[in-house]
Design a protein that fits this description.
Helices cover 34% and strands 19% of the residues. By secondary structure, it is α/β, with parallel strands linked by helices. The chain starts with 14 loop residues before the first helix and ends with a helix. One of its GO terms (biological process) is division septum assembly.
């Protein structure tokens, strides 16, 4: 019987790596386009990473914290409002891809189905996609909708890494309980990368680590 991966917390980068990643994200970061169909995707001419997470998990806040630009990614208070795959350029080296928040309580069924088709096509057919970051609210842990996206990433053979958001909202003992739940859930997914990133967009925790991970992907 194989032992499940322990999913340790990703270590902080050394000073040189941290500074190089900071400079990369302090460079030219621009919104490129919003995509609603596969034929609208930009050329797959550079490595890209995507950010997935249920509505209100703090995805826009995290992208803005990574780039140091408050209004780059726009948050919507209405689940399912944003139906586009949003592409951002990180200098000339990477694409950052913001996937719509999942959990469509208020969205019409036809819109949900259209979005799910596009998501499946994107994940299974994008050869330049190096990693997906699945954002999980540290106050709640992995929910059923999170497991659905993880299963889709498994089927699409896309490596994904769990990123816990809003970790500053928990006491250490409560965070430990959530981490145990997250690790148990991740152990069931073959596409899960064996490290977890802990972040707080408000406090800046984990931002240098995530920057270093992204810039290290080629």
């Amino acid at each position: 019987m194989t032992t499940p991966l322990p999913f340790p917390i990703a270590e902080e980068p050394d000073d040189a790596t941290r500074e190089a990643a900071r400079k990369a994200f302090a460079g030219d970061v621009q919104f490129l386009k919003g995509v609603v169909a596969m034929d609208g995707l930009p050329p797959d001419d550079r490595p890209e990473v995507c950010f997935a997470g249920r509505s209100n998990v703090g995805k826009s806040s995290l992208i803005n914290a990574l780039t140091g630009r408050k209004g780059l990614a726009r948050a919507s208070n209405t689940p399912g409002r944003t139906q586009e795959i949003n592409f951002f350029t990180l200098n000339e080296s990477h694409y950052l891809v913001d996937l719509p928040g999942y959990g469509f309580a208020n969205a019409p069924v036809a819109i949900v189905e259209k979005w799910q088709r596009l998501l499946k096509q994107y994940l299974s057919g994008r050869v330049s996609l190096r990693r997906a970051f699945v954002l999980i609210d540290a106050r709640h842990g992995v929910k059923a909708v999170d497991e659905e996206i993880m299963e889709l990433l498994d089927k699409s053979a896309v490596t994904f890494q769990a990123v816990l958001t809003k970790t500053d909202k928990l006491k250490a003992k409560d965070l430990d309980k959530i981490l145990a739940q997250v690790r148990e859930k991740l152990s069931k997914h073959p596409a899960a990368y064996p490290e977890i990133v802990l972040t707080s967009s408000e406090k800046g925790d984990g931002i240098p680590t995530l920057r270093a991970i992204i810039t290290g992907l080629s």
